[in-house]
Amino acid sequence: MWEDRMETALGDERDRNNYGRDRSRVIHSAFFRRLQGKTQVLNLGESDFYRTRLTHSLEVAQIAGGITEFLGKHPQLEQFRSALPEQNLIETIGLAHDIGHPPFGHGGEVALNYAMRNDGGFEGNAQTLRICTELGEHSDTKGLNLTRRSLLGLLKYPILYSDALNRSAYDAASAPSNIDSYKPPKCIFDSDAQAYQWITQALSPSEAALFRQTETPAPRMPPRHAKTTHKSFDSSIMEYADDIAYGVHDLEDAIAMGLVSERQWKEDVARQIEHAALPLAGEIAALSENLFSGKNRVRKKSISRLVNYFVTNCSIVARGQFQNPQFDLKAQMTEGAGRQLQILKDFIFEHVILTPELQTMEYKGQQMILRLFDAIANNPSRLLPKRYYDEYQAQDKNLRIVCDYLAGTTDEYATRLFHKLFTPSSGSIFERM
Questions:
Q1: Could you tell me which of 97, 112, 213 has the C-alpha nearest to residue 155?
Q2: Where among 177, 204, 230 does a domain terminate?
């Protein structure tokens, strides 16, 4: 199916240059470059300071590399050292982990899932796998054609969309003016089942079933999609790096842009850490002062201190459920570090993500995506670029191709396309999209 160079067994790293090639293929991919024009948390165009999906991905790759380096030097974890990913590999996974995310952040993801609700759905992580195994430009039929272990590291949710979906979680009555309930299940697309089977072929039938295991829903809880409980060792490292980048670096953006106040920070973060006597309690006052000093250099030192703290409070556990260490091992934070990082993530979610100002922009992005999808899906011969239309025809008018097109656009491209189609005074036959 994929190149012979990818046929080595998981854990066999004798030809380490293969992971270097993986890293190069991700970096040189147009899908990766487009991340510079996609929203991370704050909307693009408001400032050139804060992070985009591209800079976030670079930071996740660096933090994941730092975690791996720390774990490899930890004297009490020596028995796991041979299972650790090498730097090219873990950086590849970090760089590519968001390559499938659409324009307008998670709002765009929800909009595309609503548009595709009867045609296989949409989810950013699933699109990442689709790009790496099918859409990427390195190969006509195999995407970026990455090694098996790189793909396994990108497989955060090893379950098909149809198996994870719970349609009763959707509120059809409120759509399309309100599509908040259409958050997609964390999954891979049904159309990528063959790629999934190839990636996980090292598992026995019983282990394969265990790897797809989902959480048991709590009784009397609102309906929700199924969520898997397992991921690979490399993926667990990347996920913690992603959490650190979200909790710490997005905090830096929020402080620098004046979106959160020192009073809010002290009430919602510092007070919690001190009250619970968590490990950072002894230095939280100094960290707070530096974070809100108004001086970039002073703030950056505290941000670096927080990143280093979380990186150096990771460990490895063996679950004892899989024979292959790439499936059995898991990177995890110490309990205290994990609680503190969750406090930071909750703070960003409440005081940045949920603010009316940001929600207004997210809603606008959602509605643009919905209108674009509807217009293109009903007029594909007129509105789809030729290479997408040719594929649309070849695949018997598959709406997944329309979804691929819009998911691959940047915030700016999607906005200009919207105005070109729906704003009378905008657009020209000489305007190149």
A1: 97
A2: 230
Structure tokens at 387: 């290479």
Q: How far apart are CA 44 and CA 411, in angstroms?
A: 8
Q: Let me know whether 177 and 320 are in one domain.
A: no
| Residues recorded for the chain | 433
Q: Compare 9 and 153 and report the one with higher pLDDT.
A: 153
DSSP symbols for 239-280: HHHHHHIIIIIHHHHHHHTT-S-HHHHIIIIIHHHHHTT-GG
Instruction: Give tens-digit pLDDT for 5-21.
Output: 444 445 554 555 899 99
Query: Which residues make beta-bridge pairs with 373?
Result: none
For residues 182 and 62, is the Cβ–Cβ distance under 8 A? Answer: no
Q: Does the predicted TM-score (pTM) go above 0.90?
A: yes
Whether the per-residue pLDDT at 127 is higher than 60: the answer is: yes
Single-letter amino acid code for the residue at 355:
T
3-state secondary structure of 186: coil
**Looking at 194, 212, 230, which one is the last position of a domain?**
230
What is the sign, positive or negative, of the torsion defined by CA atoms of 57, 185, 147, 307? positive
Q: Assess whether the previous peptide bond of 176 is cis (omega < 30° from 0).
A: yes
Beta bridge partners of 315: 332
Q: Which domain holds residue 398?
A: 368-422
Q: CB count, 10 Å around CB of 190?
A: 15
Helices (H) and strands (E) in the chain, counts: 23, 2
Count of beta carbons in the 10 Å neighbourhood of residue 320: 6
pLDDT at residue 430 greater than cutoff 90: no
- In DSSP terms, 93 is beta-bridged to none
| Chain centre distance of CA 355 | 22
Q: Are residues 98 and 200 in the same domain?
A: yes
Q: Specify the pLDDT at position 419.
A: 95
Regarding whether 243 and 212 lie in a shared domain, the answer is no
